[in-house]
């Protein structure tokens, strides 16, 4: 479980939920009669097991309630809780020749266009290999990708202006937990570059103000944990004013589905991963479906554009280049590309939810980002969203039919168990009573009764003659 007293952990809570689900399955199987009670001893074991499972279920459910994911449909606070983020590495790498060439090309286009690049060309630059290359270029070009006019930016209000807002404390809590996403404090002894502690505190305050400005501007949009992981990336690259303007736009299109009253739309949207996987690798799809892994592992990826789960700052901003220049649902295709890329690893695991979720939820450090983005673009062009939506609907119908069959089978098993128990009781009576009522047993019983009666009469006569009443 999370050590945080106020915020649960998605990953650990997921494991807890899996444990509760497993206990439920065991309880149901016992109830359905899959454990056959042959003797009275097994009957006692059965009763004890039901009591034990009920106690464990109750205890773990209490723990789950304390540390659960606060999904919007599960609490009035409506805040998605995500586990502690990966520590972000801000290590700088020297530019390779291809990156230098790409940077020079972009700088030339900016010079020729008077600081502007035609939007279609800019999107292609951001999507193609190495993206926008440097943060200096991103600071200029990210606003252009989302249609922000940097000449019309408004100054940021003060932090104290938001302290009475009902979402303020939750936002501050999440921002304080996101220190791993900020550059580290410099360490001269170990030659670690970074930013001064005071600057980190200032960045945290700026991040809080940025998020609160969006929430206050759009009261119908609901804040979720993970939103701050997106906002901090834009803050680090572009500064407070530009970051707010970008998040203002993204909150009303790319992330609007995630900021609704409930998370139903987001949860259903994640199902769009599976048709792509099925079309490309049916064997892998069947393996994952049989494991029951679901889509929880991909929730932080989708909510934060992988900013929460990757531990390389360079990889995060490269993905943001791609997503800003791509259609809204591109993160789903990147997710499918990652699953397909890791197929060999997945097949080596046990086909159960815990093993598969554990592997998928942690992204490896050596992911070939450029290769995955190229695969994602190919998948997006290959499978239209209308085609994927129809496949999702088909899969949902099959799942509903499967559930109905399972419920019907469980009901039939319970009825069969009840009939077997009744017939077993009737068999016992019909088997023993005829054996007790044979002529021989009747004569013996009658003779024994006469003997007992005679003895009783004799001893009573003797007691009376002796004066004993």
From TrEMBL:
InterPro entries: Rab-GAP-TBC_dom, Rab-GAP_TBC_sf, TBC20/Gyp8-like. GO terms for biological process: endoplasmic reticulum to Golgi vesicle-mediated transport. GO terms for cellular component: endoplasmic reticulum membrane. The chain crosses the membrane at residues 441-459. It holds the Pfam family RabGAP-TBC. Residues 132-327 form the Rab-GAP TBC domain. The keyword RNA-binding does not apply. Keywords: GTPase activation, Membrane, Transmembrane, Transmembrane helix. GO terms for molecular function: GTPase activator activity. This is Rab-GAP TBC domain-containing protein. It comes from Glossina palpalis gambiensis.
């Amino acid at each position: 479980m999370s050590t945080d007293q106020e915020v649960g952990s998605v990953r650990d809570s997921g494991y807890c939920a899996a444990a509760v689900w497993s206990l439920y399955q065991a309880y149901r199987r016992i109830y359905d009669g899959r454990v056959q009670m042959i003797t009275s001893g097994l009957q006692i074991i059965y009763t004890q097991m039901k009591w034990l499972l009920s106690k464990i279920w109750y205890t773990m459910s209490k723990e789950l309630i304390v540390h659960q994911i606060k999904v919007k449909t599960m609490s009035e606070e409506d805040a998605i809780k995500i586990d502690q983020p990966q520590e972000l590495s801000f290590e700088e790498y020297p530019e390779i020749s291809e990156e230098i060439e790409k940077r020079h090309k972009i700088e030339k286009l900016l010079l020729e266009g008077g600081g502007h690049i035609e939007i279609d060309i800019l999107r292609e630059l951001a999507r193609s290999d190495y993206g926008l290359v440097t943060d200096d270029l991103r600071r200029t070009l990210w606003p252009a990708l989302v249609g922000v006019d940097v000449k019309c930016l408004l100054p940021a209000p003060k932090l104290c202006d938001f302290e009475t807002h009902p979402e303020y404390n939750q936002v501050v809590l999440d921002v304080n937990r996101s220190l791993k996403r900020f550059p580290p404090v410099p360490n001269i002894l170990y030659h670690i570059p970074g930013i001064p502690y005071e600057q980190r505190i200032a960045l945290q305050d700026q991040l809080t103000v940025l998020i609160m400005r969006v929430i206050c501007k759009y009261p119908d949009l609901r804040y979720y944990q993970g939103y701050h992981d997106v906002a901090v990336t834009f803050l680090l690259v572009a500064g407070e004013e530009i970051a707010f303007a970008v998040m203002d736009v993204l909150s009303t299109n790319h992330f609007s589905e995630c900021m609704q009253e409930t998370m139903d739309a987001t949860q259903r949207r994640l199902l769009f991963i599976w048709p792509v996987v099925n079309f490309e690798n049916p064997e892998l799809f069947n393996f994952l479906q049989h494991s029951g892994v679901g889509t929880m592992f991909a929730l932080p990826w989708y909510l934060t554009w992988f900013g929460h789960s990757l531990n390389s700052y360079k990889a995060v901003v490269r993905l943001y280049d791609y997503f800003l220049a791509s259609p809204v649902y591109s993160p789903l295709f990147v997710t499918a590309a990652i699953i397909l890329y890791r197929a060999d690893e997945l097949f080596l695991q046990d086909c159960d939810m815990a093993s598969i979720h554990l592997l998928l939820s942690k992204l490896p450090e050596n992911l070939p980002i450029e290769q995955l983005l190229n695969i994602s673009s190919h998948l997006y062009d290959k499978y239209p969203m209308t085609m994927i939506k129809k496949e999702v609907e088909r899969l949902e119908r099959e799942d509903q039919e499967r559930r109905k069959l399972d419920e019907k089978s469980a009901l039939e098993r319970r009825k069969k168990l009840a009939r077997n128990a009744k017939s077993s009781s009737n068999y016992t009576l019909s088997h023993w009573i005829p054996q007790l009522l044979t002529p021989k047993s009747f004569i013996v019983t009658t003779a024994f009764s006469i003997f007992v009666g005679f003895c009783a009469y004799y001893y009573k006569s003797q007691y009376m003659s002796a004066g004993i009443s």
